Amino acid sequence: MIPRLLEGQIQPFISPKKAIVLTGPRQVGKTTLVTRLANGLEQPVLWLTGDDPAIREALSGISLAQLKPLIGNYKVMVVDEAQRLTNAGLTLKLITDHFPEVHLLVTGSSSLDIAAQTKESLTGRKYDFTLLPLSFAEMQAYHGRLTEHALLEQRLIYGYYPEVVTGGVEGAVRLLTDLSEGLMYKDLLMLDQLKKPSLIVKILQALALQLGQEVQYHEVAQIVGADPATVERYIDLLEQSFVVFRLPSLSRNARNEIKKGRKIYFYDTGIRNAIIRNFNPMALRQDKGALWENFLIVERRKRNLYSGYGPNMYFWRTTSRQEIDYIEDYGGKLSAFEFKWNPETSAQIPKAFLAAYPGSDPAVVHRQNFFEFVGA
What is the Cα–Cα distance from 135 to 150, expressed in whole angstroms? Predict the structure, then answer.
């Protein structure tokens, strides 16, 4: 197994009376990680999965009296794919409240239901963690920087899903195609309020083709044949399903700053490429700059998530089209980053930004110096 950085972050928080809730995309290794954590407690494990119809039925509306014989003498309990359970939050609350000796580990492939169900019922009773696809930093630790750097272009094209990384290029296209065609947002497709599942694919294709650009909901709506409110709602659902995430624009000082802009990135570049069916090598791509930008921002997001570093994240753009790819605000201190695939391409932070935000730390990140930026 490739060691995950998040394992060391979670271990100190495992204790009775507190549930560990691990969310993230499907097939990124949540079950494997929880198995390692549970086995590390060196106790028999009661394992229940929401993917099993019999388990879903047994836990639906279960009472305290019914839970007692189910849990018995187990001191470690895993509830896998908890978002598939009815009233998961209340069931988990019963366990944390009435079985104080039980170590409870919970996973969910979507934050859609599990977050809503546990937000109120598990207040003060849980620790939340998110696991994403493998990272450059994790792979560097696994087999060294030189090896991982040599695979950089392959990672940009096929991404970091564990099965893609361990299985090689041969099976990557099939796996990524299966994921992009519905497996990764399987729970989203089951929602009653999702009236047009086919619209998801159209929206994802539009977002994939606008990678690195500012996204306007009304423009996407015109492309896919829907109204802007529906597009925004579907993008919100895709974000909660860990398919994409939004990066807002920074606007504080200058009059001509874009005030309510957003860019949208994919949690995995392989998924993005599968959506538009483009697995061409970097030398043949017209979108290499946007792909590199997505790669760096999601790797930085992983780095921040796993290290507990929590800056506010933005991009910056003016109406005169001056732009900075990525900005972090931590404790009032701004760090501004420009991304360039080619190390020899000249790049400068706009003077208008430096004038509006004096004291900011500017940097240019390219494929020969990105290691520290992604935490590797």
Answer: 15
